[in-house]
Design brief:
- This protein is α+β, with helices and mostly antiparallel strands and about 90 residues long.
- It is about 15% helix and about 55% strand.
- It has a single domain, classed as Immunoglobulin-like, CATH 2.60.40.
- The chain has a 6-stranded antiparallel beta sheet, with no helix packed on it.
- About 15% of the residues are buried.
Length: about 90
């Protein structure tokens, strides 16, 4: 399907961008939980640092006692004492 037609269909159906594309969606719940949808893979995983690759860049999660939970092909949950998030944009 051509990109132009796809954009018109998702606008008509009012679908969110993350459903119709590879754009990641980041859901932060307090300082204890982050869910990242549409991720590609895990680049690094330590108790204090997680690097997650997405289609548009890298998401760095910094904190303490970080754990990866509920990982599927589409989303991943990071729990623990989250101190900060960093985003590294990858230019096409």
């Amino acid at each position: 399907m051509k990109k132009g037609k796809f954009n018109r269909i998702d606008k008509i159906l009012e679908l969110p961008k993350e459903v119709c594309s590879n754009i990641p969606k980041v859901i932060i719940t307090g300082f204890d939980e982050i869910i990242i949808e549409n991720f590609k893979g895990i680049l690094e995983y330590e108790e204090f640092f997680v690097r997650i690759n997405t289609h548009i860049g890298i998401i760095n999660v910094n904190g303490f006692n970080l754990n990866l939970q509920n990982m599927t092909n589409d989303d991943i949950k990071v729990t623990g004492k989250i101190e900060s998030l960093e985003f590294e944009r990858v230019e096409d």
